[in-house]
Amino acid sequence: MLFNSLEFFFFFLIVYSVYLLLKHSAQNKFLIIASCIFYASWNWKYLGLMFISITTDYFCGREIDARRDPKARKMFLFLSIFVNLSILGFFKYFNFFVDSLSDLLRLFHLDIPGVRGPLNIILPVGISFYTFESLSYTIDVYRGQLKPTRRYWDYFLFVAYFPQLVAGPIMRAKTLLPQVLAPRSVNAKKFYEGGFLFFWGLFEKLFVADNLAKLVNPVFEEQGPYRGVRVLLALYAFAFQIFCDFDGYSNMARGLGKFMGFEIDVNFNLPYFAVNPRQFWKRWHISLSTWLRDYLYIPLGGNRRGKGWMYAALFLTMFLGGLWHGAAWTFVLWGIYQGFLLIVHRLVAKDVRASAIDASPRSLKRALKNLVFFHLVLLGWLFFRAQSVGQIFEMLYALFFNFNIFAVDIQSWLTLAGFVVPLLAIQIWQFLSGDLMILYKQHWLLKTIIYAFMTYLLIGWGVLKAEEFIYFQF
Q: d(Cα 196, Cα 175) in Å, to the nearest integer?
């Protein structure tokens, strides 16, 4: 079920109506049932994988906490990591590695028995998100940063809670588990905040992201040769498409959570207003970037073992972060590119920590830095969106050597502006005020006018057919 579908509307209406009638313990059990139904609506067969991951980590968390022998504690931690990464690795990366090995062997005119073509493996939706979420629990228990939950079904709900199950945010147990364990309050303030967040997310998805897909997909589906102007148009469109698609999902998830008394983490904080890569990763897909920092970069040594090791840790972290997004060399190249930006920034920044803090939002110098860095991010999106490594090089060639300004398709650029300008108007307001909820906090008359205009845009130009979210494939 998609958040932007009528099917989900009726599903949630029933779930919410029953939820409000129940007491805390019954609410939790009912949400587990609802979450399983929600996930099974894609493919019920893969519910078993989630059960394996949840059961393994619940058991390992209990055993890690109960044992005093360091070797035994480490053994159960490794069991958790092995089971989770084995499942993720098989379903997400098996075919990728088989294909890559086959290509390498063909390069040397070799054919080794046993190396066959790809299997017919379907990627279970949300597996990357709930795997990382569940893994963080056992690691935190092992580090002594968290006490394991005693009730299996409470832990099950923590992992399987349907608003954030299939595309995040990747919630930490120390944030979400207490909300599962304690009675939750549902009041008018949370309900109205949830309504705003869901509506704003719906606007981002239906009006901005799904319309921009019509500008993006035809260009990347072409076989070439490419025109630089069209490639640039597609990159601008994709930058806002992927942001609004994923931020829209995250906002809808937060809104659904608030309806039921849960607080789900902010996953995006105006990332295109960043002026350097460090700022960008504090604003983009925050739950993933902090996960990679806490469970990969810091354990690798971070900045504690000298600059050379720090650069290597940054590179490896972003390399694996790119691979997390998908089993393709294009994502690997995107991760390498992001690692390169972070390393260069560390090399040239006088004060890396200070550079992560925004300067005056109204500064002209800041605006120019913002504009330059946005285009560096834009170049990265070419690696991310391209369908092959070959297409990346062909499009790069078109951008730099086949850029005919007189071949500009004015209508397409006006279409791009028509869908992006309303978004940017709200985002600039949010940025200058330093408050993502600034629109919600306005006088009721101003809010009514803006909501009415957004509704008009949604009904008149929104893509009302339920389209999947981009991050479902990751």
A: 23
Q: Which of 325, 345, 375, 443 is catalytic?
A: 325
Segments of the chain scoring below 70 in pLDDT: 99-120, 351-360, 407
Q: What's the half-sphere exposure (Cβ side, CA atoms, 13 Å) at 107?
A: 6
DSSP 1-63: --TTSHHHHHHHHHHHHHHHHS-HHHHHHHHHHHHHHHHHHHHGGGHHHHHHHHHHHHHHHHH
pLDDT on residue 409: 85
Q: Which pLDDT belongs to residue 351? A: 65
Alpha-carbon gap, residue 268 to 249, rounded angstroms: 11
pTM above 0.90, yes or no: yes
Q: In the chain, what are the domain boundaries?
A: 6-184, 189-275+358-473
Contact status, residue 314 vs residue 320, Cβ threshold 8 Å: no
**Cα 84 to Cα 196: distance, rounded to the nearest angstrom:** 36
24 labelled catalytic: no
In 3-state terms, what secondary structure has residue 332? helix
